[in-house]
Specification:
The structure holds 2 protein chains of 2 kinds. By secondary structure, chain A is α+β, with helices and mostly antiparallel strands. Helices cover about 40% and strands about 30% of the residues of chain A. Chain A has 4 helices and 5 strands; from the N terminus they run H-E-H-H-E-E-E-H-E. In chain A, strands 1, 2, 3, 4 and 5 form a 5-stranded mixed sheet that branches. In chain A, strand 2 (about 60-65) and strand 3 form a beta hairpin. In chain A, helix 1 (about 15-25) crosses helix 4 (about 90-105) and helix 2 packs across helix 3 (about 45-55). The longest helix of chain A is centred in the last third of the chain and has 18 residues, at about 90-105. Chain A is globular, with a radius of gyration of 16 Å. Chain B contains 8 helices and 5 strands. The longest helix of chain B has 26 residues, at about 35-60. Chain B starts with 14 loop residues before the first helix and ends with a strand. Chain B folds into 2 domains: about 5-60, no CATH class; about 85-215, 2-Layer Sandwich (Alpha-Beta Plaits). Chain B is α+β, with helices and mostly antiparallel strands. In chain B, the strands form 2 sheets. A 3-stranded mixed sheet of chain B has the order 3-4-5. In chain B, strands 1-2 form a two-stranded antiparallel sheet. The chains are: A alpha+beta, B alpha+beta. The interface of A and B includes residues 35, 86, 114, 118 and 122 of A.
């Protein structure tokens, strides 16, 4: 048996953001998450390193393309900017995303807080 | 920089002006003025070097952005425009739902394409909160109020949650020779159905202005 202490796993805001993004994209009627300048710059290179260093603390906010997650006192707050398929009712899609993301968060052991959705575009699926 | 700080030749012409017109033939004054001619001759060398560098950069494949990068920048630019004005649709303890004015406009424009003889132009959307409507007419429910505000006889048969009261201001161009009142009614009907079907809220007031005619 090792004498090395076991590090406790911490659910970070980055993990919550990633979980929320994946859950949103799996929801029928969601076409994509809308990109942001920060997300783009992070993909370009040097800033990506900075982004990795700030991978998201348990109390900080993590932002990436179309998703921002904050953890505060064990509660996760998520914001998503989405584009929806014109074949679906956008408000219903947003509510489904909200419900699914809250459910996903609850599986991490954190308390799901508000999940704010902004529908930035409604387009036909190409 | 103060006006007096602009570098000038002895004849009073500013160097900036000569530089700005270096690609054009010399003016009558410049053809006569020795100082202007000297300045033009020296600046034309600089102009040539600048042009050569600029063209070299344009043709240099290593300086060309990858198509993926260009597309990503354009996607961000579009998304930033969409982020400019948002309308709150729904708010509960579980979170809020907002929609960008651009997304809502796209639904309206898409609906307008189904009406022959109409080209949609500028679309502005204002919001009156349901609370405002209720305070104005205490005896009406939110749904009653929405339908009472705009054409109470019309029933689209579409069910939707009420949300905010939208005031859609759409400007259009109409084809010459069409029956404008009938076409505009058809357009309003189309929009009234498209908003609940696409967004999930009632359409509210739809103001349509025919601001131009176009030949077919």
């Amino acid at each position: 048996m090792s004498d090395q202490p076991l590090n406790g796993k911490v659910v970070t805001s980055q993990l919550i953001a990633s979980l929320a993004a994946r859950t949103a994209l799996e929801t029928p009627g969601v076409l994509r998450l809308e990109p942001t300048i920060t997300g783009f710059v992070a993909r370009l290179g040097p800033a990506a390193l900075q982004n990795l260093r700030n991978a998201g603390s348990q109390n900080g906010t993590y932002r990436h393309d179309g998703v921002a997650a904050t953890i505060s006192d064990g509660t996760a707050h998520v914001r998503l900017d989405i584009a929806t398929d014109i074949a679906y009712v956008a408000l219903n899609v947003a509510e489904a995303v909200q419900q699914r993301v809250r459910e996903s968060i609850s599986h991490t052991g954190l308390t799901p807080g508000p999940v704010d959705i902004c529908i930035l575009a409604i387009e036909p699926r190409s | 920089m103060a006006l007096g700080d602009i570098p000038r030749l002895g004849c009073g012409r500013s160097i900036d002006r000569i530089w700005a017109t270096i690609d054009q033939p010399p003016t009558a004054h410049e053809q006569q003025c020795e100082q202007c001619q000297t300045a033009r001759a020296r600046l034309s060398g600089l102009n040539e070097a600048t042009r050569s560098l600029r063209e070299s950069d344009l043709r240099n494949p290593s300086l060309k952005a990858h198509p993926g990068v260009t597309n990503a920048i354009m996607d961000i630019a579009r998304a930033e425009i969409r982020r400019s004005k948002r309308i709150r649709l729904h708010s509960t303890v579980n979170g809020t739902t907002e929609i960008s004015e651009q997304a809502l406009s796209s639904i309206i424009r898409f609906a307008a394409t189904a009406v022959p003889g109409i080209h949609s132009r500028r679309c502005r959307i204002e919001v009156r909160s349901t609370a405002d409507n209720l305070s104005a007419t205490d005896n009406l429910s939110a749904t009653d109020n929405l339908s009472a505000t705009d054409n109470p006889s019309e029933n689209t048969g579409t069910t939707a949650s009420t949300g905010p009261h939208l005031i859609v201001n759409l400007r259009v161009a109409a084809a010459t020779g069409i029956d404008i009142p009938r076409t505009v009614d058809a357009l309003r009907h189309q929009i009234r159905n498209a908003i609940p079907a696409g967004v999930g809220i009632t359409a509210g007031t739809i103001n349509i202005t025919v601001e131009d005619l176009y030949d077919v």
